[in-house]
Amino acid sequence: MYSRQRNHGPKILALLLPGIICVAILLALTAHPAEAAGSHVDAMVLKSDIGPASLHFLTQSIATAQRDKAQALVIEIDTPGGDIDSMKAMTQEELASSIPIISYVSPSGGRAASAGAFVALSAQIAAMAPTTRIGASSPVTGTGADIGSTLKAKVENDLIAAMTGIQQRYQRNVPLAVQMIKNASSYDDATAIKEKIVDLGAPDLSSLLSAVNGRTVQIKGGQTVSLQTAGASIQTLSPTPFDELYAFLLDPNIAFLLFIVAMIGIYLEISHPGVIVPGVVGSIALLLFLLAVGSLSPNWAGLALMVLAFVLLVLDLRLPTHGALTIGAVVALVVGTLIFFNSGGPYSGPKVNPLVVYAMGALIGLIGFTLVTFIMRAQRMPVTTGMESMIGSNATALTPLLPEGRVNYAGENWAAILDPPATSVDAGAQVQVTAIEGLRLHVRPLPNQSVIDTHSVTPLK
């Protein structure tokens, strides 16, 4: 005996497709650059805000320089700063590096400000190009505002201790470096070089490599290394497509929009099962959203409200709340998003634009109310198919109904019985179907039809 089996292949493929696509993207975009042969120096350019994306780029660059046995890794820095957590992780990567790291604040007019100053000074050798500057490292909120006195003191003391340790390790000026944090002091290249805040200055990268040639630096484990950088070729390490995508996704506005796409896609798939495409798009957007927020420092209570908003939308499709839950969903989405992205502490990263949140909340509400309206209208429409569609329709009596007989409905001969059974109608009378009992119709006479009350008929003697 053979049983018929349904082909679930397309649906299974649709469910697996988001994961397959993401894995393929990660494998394709994290390909390692070609390794340089001979004596060379790797160089990376850090010209973005200090954040998870720049941390990932620095970590990969250090790993590449270690793998291809570069003489040193040069970090060309021009940044306004960034969040404190990423900065701490970046300085830890530099301090623990097994290859020499040279920071170079460049080009002319560039800066290593705020968190960027820590990244610059954490390198074994710190250099500056002409007319550059370093400093202004006082802690502030993500919007640039001042923070409370008690919290500010705690953060400042922690940063001062970190800066003191870094400068003492490399025998540089500690008091002036500490002033970057206490008083937001900033120094031009001439002052920084003269006061030994940094090690040296150089007009360009080639001159810098010649100037540091033969210097001895201490790397991980206390090991000393003599730099052999004069005449070394320079291999520029550029961000991979994955790094670019990662940086793009880390924008809170982009991450929020990904959540909205995921929410709408999965919501449409639930409301219209089997469409597939919205569900696939929503699943991919959800995975990218999770990739992004995994590297941020959000308030997870906000995410709970955002998820609650989705649950309320789905429930509004199933329960007779007439859109009340959709209103709750919009409120939960807006409040949850602002808490999720915009309630970080000092040195927190960029915030989501409230106008984007309000606009997307209005869009979700519009979609929710539209679907709920369609569902309510569909529920109120009379049934036009199946046995239930017969109720309320007219039929013609083929025989007298006494109270049982036969009627013609849509060209078909049906057994019928009158409601109430104390009446009868003549053949040819019009009746209306009131109920269906198996293969028998319950009918009642229409107005102006000939109806006989069997109780009023005088029996013959």
Automatic annotation (TrEMBL):
- This protein's GO CC annotations: membrane
Extent of the signal sequence: 1-36
The membrane spanning regions, by residue number, are: 245-268, 275-294, 300-317, 324-343, 355-376
Q: Which UniProt keywords apply?
A: Membrane, Signal, Transmembrane, Transmembrane helix
What membrane topology is annotated for this entry?
Multi-pass membrane protein
Give the NfeD-like C-terminal domain ranges.
388-445
Q: Does the keyword Transmembrane apply?
A: yes
**Keyword hit for Hydrolase:** no
The UniProt record lists the NfeD integral membrane domain at 253-372
The record ties this protein, via Pfam families, to: NfeD, NfeD1b_N, NfeD_membrane
What protein name does the entry list?
Nodulation protein NfeD
What organism is recorded for this protein? Ktedonosporobacter rubrisoli
